[in-house]
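ok trying this again, last paste got cut off
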Amino acid sequence: MTLLSTLLSLTAIALSFKSIRTIPMRVILALLCFFQLFLLGFYFVADHLTGSGVNESVLYHLNTDMEGAGLKEFSYLIALSTAYLLSILLTSTLLYRKSYNKNHIKPIRYSTSIAVFIAALATNPTLLDIGRAFYSNQSGTPSDYIDIKKASLPENPKNLVFIYLESLERTYFNERIFPNLLPELSALEQQAISFTDIRQAYGTGWTIAGITASQCGVPLITPANGNAMGSMDQFLPRANCLGDLLSKHNYELNYLGGAHLNFAGKGRFYKTHNFQRIEGLQELHHTLKDPLYTSSWGLFDDTLYDLAYQRFEELSTKNQPFGLFMLTLDTHHPSGLQSSTCKEVQYADGKNPMLNAVHCADRLASSFIRRLLSSKAADNTIIVVASDHLAMQNTASGLLNQSPRRNLLMMFAPNHSGDQISKPGSTLDTGPTILQLLGSPIRVLGMGRSLLEKNTPTLTEAHASLDDTLTSYRNFFKSLWSFPQLEAGITVQPNSQKLFLGQRVLDFPALILLNADLHVREVRFPSIEDPSLSYQVSDLAPEQLFILVDHCPGKKSINPDSPLSDTLFCMSYGALGADKPFKRLALREKIHFSKYQLEEELLAYKVQGAGKLYAEQRQQLLLLDRYGTADVIDYKSSINSSFTLISSSSPSGNSRIETATSDMELSRGLTLIGLGDDQSAVVLQHQDTCEPYRHQAPLVDSFQNIINRESFQVFAIIAHDSAWCRDKEDMRPALESTNLEAWRTLEFRVPYIAIIDKNRTQQEFLGSPNESLVIRIN
C-alpha cells in the first residue's frame, strides 16, 4: 500500500499541472498534496522507530507528553524530518503555482487529479494504521459484556451457601447410564430449582475457570496456562464478581476448600474479590483430629463438610448476611478419592473407582444439604449446588460420553421448589441467576444472563456458537487482568522470588511482554502444561520487547562481565530481532531499575527483523530450553553416527544419550556406553559411584577391561547427578585402570563426560556445578 499510495501521489501531482485557474481550487490541490505527502513522511518516520508503522505506541505518545524522551539520540531523524517538511511545503507551494492555467481550464484533468489524490489518501499507510487501531479500540469491550459495579439488594438480604462439587456433572444423574448412582441428590432435586441444560463454554473447563465463570460471568482467558496465573498478585481485578457486589452489602464472605489456596490462584481470586476469610489445606490442617488424614489433593470431603457446617452455624449467629463458598475434592479425576466414612460404599460391582467416589459424594453432599435445610437459618438462606466444570478424563469417561454432557446446577431457595428449567445456558449465567434469587433487580453479570428470565436469552441462545464468540473477545478478557505497569520501575528481590512494580507484587519466574511504548501487555508464568519461558521467548516476534526473570542458564552463554557461578536467577531483556543481542544480568541481591533506566535500555533496541542475530538468539534459547545450557560442545569422532551426550549435575535433571531415533536416560553415578556406526548406543556397565556399596552388586569389571574386549570404536562415560557423594575414592574401581585423569579432580555435583576413541584419542569434559554438560558427537 505504501508504494501504491506514493505512485498515486506522483500521478496526481502530474495531472494537476496547468489544470485550473481559480484560487480556491488551486488551494484545494495544494492542501491535498501537502496532507498526503505529510502522512507518507509521518509513516516512514513511525515505521523507522517502531518497525511496524503507526502502531499503538505512536498513538499513545501523540496523546501524552514526551517528557523524558531521549530526543538527542534521534537528532539525525529530527533533521531529516525537518528537511522533508520543508520540501513538501515547497512542493505544495509549487503545485499551487504550476496548476495555474490562465488560458484554458481543464475540468476533466482537474477532477481526475482530485480523485487520484483521494485514492492516494485512501491507500495511505498512516490512515490505514490509524483506522485499524481506532477500530480495535472501539471494539475493545464486547457489546455482550455488561459491567455491573453495584447490585441493589433488599434491606435484609438472604445468606448464600455455594457448594462446588468437584467435576460432579449433571450427566451422572442419567439413570439409563448410571442407575441409582445419585439417589439422594436426585431426591433432593425435587425440592430445588434445577437447571438441566448448563453447557461448558470456552475458558470455563477447569476448577478456577469454572469458579471465575460462575462468580464473574467471564471465561478465564490468560496469556499462559490458566492454573499458572496464581503467581499474579491480583486475580482479574478489573472484573466485577459476586464477592465484589455482595461485600458492598456488608456480606461476610468465607471460602473453605480442601486443597492448597495457592494452587491455580484460588486464594488470590477470593482475596481480590473481597472475601474476608479464605482457608484451604494449610489453614485448616490444624483442625484435624488425625493430621495424617488427608489425600494427595488435601482434605477429604467428610472433613470439609464438618468444618463447613461448623462455620455455617457460627455465621448464622451473627447479625449480618454471609456468603459461605466451598469446594470439594473427592470426585477429582482420574479415579476419585473416598472419605473414610464411605469405606464400605461402592457402586454396582465396585470395580470403577470414580463411580465409587461419586456414589460416596452423593451421600456426603446430600447429608450436608439436609443439615442446612433443617437449620434455623434455612428460611433466610439460598443454597447453590454446582459442578465446577465437566469431569475430565477419568475411569468413567467412557460412560459419560454416551450422553450429551451437562454441568450440574441446583438452587434451594425459600418459596421455590421442584422447578426444572431447561433454558440453555452455561456456567457464565450462574452469577446473575443467584443475584435474582437474592432479590436484586440485576439480571446480568459480565457475559452472564439470569436463567430465570424467560424473555432474556442467554448468550448460549443468542449466538450460533458461544465458543466462537468468546474466542473473538480474547484480548478483552485478558485485559481484565490489569497487568502492573512500569511507571515506578521494577525491583527484583531474588531471595523471596518477588518482582515489585510499584505497589504490585508478582512471583517469578515470569515473562513480561511490552508494547513499543513499554506498556505491559502480558505477564506469563511457568506451567507444566506450557512450554518453558525460554521456549516462549524463542517463539516471540522479532520486534517483541520482553523482560524475563528466570533461572540462570550456563555461564558461557552469558555476558563474560557478568559471571554466574554463585547466582541462581537472571534477568534478561531486549528483543530478539533487534540490532544487538538481548542482555542478561545475574541477580545476586535486590536490584531496582527506574522507569528512566528501563526506557534507556529497552528503547535503545532498534528492530531489524528476522535476520542472522534473530536466528542465533532463537537457537540459543531453544538449546537452553532443551538442555539447560546454550553451550553445546561439538566433538568429531571416527564413527559415522551422530549422538548428543548430556550429563546433568542435578538429581532432578535428565542425563541421557540422544540419537536420531531415541533417547536413553541414565541413572545416578557413572555409566559406560558403547557408540556404534549404526546409531546404536549400548550401556555396557553402570555403577552408582555415589553410594557404591548400598543396594547394588559390587563392580564386576573395570571400565577399561570392558573397553578392551568390546568391538565398539568409540565409548562414552557419563556422570549423572554426582559421580561421588562421600568419597572420591568411590570412583576408583571403575576408572583407575583407564588413562583418564580429570576425574581425580572432579568435585561434588559437577557434570562429567569422557569420550574414548580407539582410533584417535580420549578426552574428558567437566562442566559447572548444578548445570548440564552437552556434547554433540558428529
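PB: full thing came through this time. The first helix runs from residue 2 to 16.
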